[in-house]
Write a structure and sequence with these properties.
This protein has 381 residues and is of the alpha+beta class. Helices cover 55% and strands 17% of the residues. The strands form 3 sheets. A 5-stranded mixed sheet has the order 6-8-9-11-10. The chain is rod-shaped.
């Protein structure tokens, strides 16, 4: 487990712990406040009962009045036997009986009403609700949970972006260093090609060597441009794809059977950096040949619709487990004994970021093969 994964798990555990503790604490506070409000309502009822039990000539307790007047936060609706309605802390038109009836029904659904003066043969009915403070406290855990989720998501995004930035820096650095290291031997090879051409002893062999050396020059140029924004031009993708496959086919074991399907009846125009596109095709085809261990069938198909151009590259190799469909495009992932695991990662970067396209594993079956699919936006829609 790498350092980033450990940090992710620590953040996740801390966030969950904080959320659970805060939720439990808030619930406990809400419960205690609800109990206190119930006691206050009971006192309010006792105060009303004392006033009801007092004769007109009797002395009414000052404390009873203070208790009744002291309720400033608990919503109360009191239906009295003489058809009068008393309210406290109600938001709305308290003169609207329909409004009060509807509100009292909602209060009744939450808790049974209290009967006042039953011992005197009265039928005063008291409905009450939680105070605004209690309601806010009850919703507070939900808000905390939402904040916790947002916190986790932001942390994960930040860590993922940090990882991607590190991967990008690693790719750029390795690419430019590779281009630098290749520069000297390629210059020597170019000089030797010129000597062979001047000698003219084996022109066909010299021509093939020159093709490969020029290919090395192109590859070196690709590596040197990693990290900079490539120039895209509107080109017909079919001939470029055909030329790339033709070059690869001539340098692939004869036991690899190529099937290339490219429409000849129309031009499929896409914004493309030709050099980088050829690199993507080379990477996918070479990976396919490696997956087949140098023997099998390799199919390349180009087709389109009104808005998109599609390329599918299928092999009859060992296949990819479904759990690795996305992982194969991460830098450093490889199933080979030797290799950096950068080929598919670079291909994804070229297609996704530089060409605004998509590359993904369309399907794969262990022991039967894999199909990669590339999607490019078209210009003529």
């Amino acid at each position: 487990m790498n350092k980033k994964d450990i940090i992710r798990k620590i953040i996740f555990v801390i966030a969950i712990a904080v959320g659970v503790v805060s939720w439990l604490y808030s619930n406990n506070l809400a419960k205690k406040l609800a109990e206190e409000e119930e006691k206050n309502v009971s006192l309010w009822v006792d105060a009303v009962r004392e006033i009801d039990n007092t004769d007109f000539d009797g002395e009414i307790s000052l404390l009873a009045y203070k208790i009744i007047q002291g309720n400033t936060n608990i919503p109360i609706i009191l239906y009295q036997e003489n058809n009068t309605i008393s309210t406290a802390n109600i938001d709305g038109d308290v003169k609207d009986e329909a409004f009060l009836d509807n509100l009292s029904k909602k209060m009744h659904e939450m808790r049974p009403p209290l009967m006042i003066g039953a011992e005197l043969g009265k039928q005063d009915i008291l409905y009450y609700d939680d105070s605004k403070i209690l309601k806010q406290l009850e919703t507070y855990p939900i808000i905390q949970f939402a904040v916790m989720v947002i916190f986790i998501v932001v942390c994960f995004i930040a860590l993922r972006n940090s990882t991607k930035a590190e991967e990008n820096m690693m790719m750029v650095g390795m690419s430019k260093e590779t281009a630098h290291q290749l520069g000297t031997p390629i210059s020597s090879l170019l000089a030797w090609v010129e000597i062979l051409k001047a000698d003219n002893s084996q022109p066909e062999l010299t021509q093939e060597v020159e093709k490969d050396v020029n290919r090395l020059v192109k590859i070196t140029d690709r590596f040197s441009r990693i990290g900079s924004t490539p120039e895209l031009k509107a080109v017909e993708i079919g001939p470029i794809l055909a030329n790339s496959i033709k070059y690869l086919q001539s340098r692939t074991p004869k036991v690899v059977e190529y099937t290339v399907t490219i429409p000849n009846d129309k031009a499929i125009i896409v914004p493309l950096n030709v050099s980088l596109f050829e690199w993507v095709i080379e990477n996918l085809c070479k990976n396919a040949v490696d997956a087949m261990e140098g023997r099998g069938k390799l199919s390349i198909k180009l087709y389109d619709d009104e808005k998109k151009a599609y390329i599918e590259i299928s092999d009859t190799g060992k296949g990819i487990p479904k759990r690795n469909f996305k992982t194969v495009f991460k830098a450093g992932f490889t199933t080979k004994k030797h290799g950096w695991g950068l080929g598919l990662s670079l291909a994804a970067r070229i297609v996704n970021y530089y060409h605004n396209g998509k590359i993904f594993v369309k399907n794969s079956e262990i022991g039967k093969g894999t199909t990669f699919k590339i999607v490019f936006p078209k210009l003529n829609h």
